Amino acid sequence: MKTKATVRLKFSSKEKLQTVLNSLKPEAENPATTRARTLLKQEDKSLVLSIEADDTVALRASLNAYLRWINSILNVLEVLETR
pTM value? Predict the structure, then answer.
C-alpha cells in the first residue's frame, strides 16, 4: 500500500532554509533505499518535505530521519550563531 506525508516547516530566515535544503539534497537525490522517495522544495521561507513510500514502516522511518536531520542542522546553526 502506497503512503504519503507532506510536512511544511517555516524558517526564521531564507538563509537557514537554504542551508537545510542544501544539506538534505544529497540524501533526497540518492536515497539509501528504494522503499521511499523524498521531494524537498522551498516556498518562500518554508521547506516542504514530501515523502511517498511503499508502506507505513518506510514512511515513518524516512519521516523520522529527515526530521531528525533537520533538527540536527538547526542545532549546529544555533551553536555557530552563539560563537
Answer: 0.92
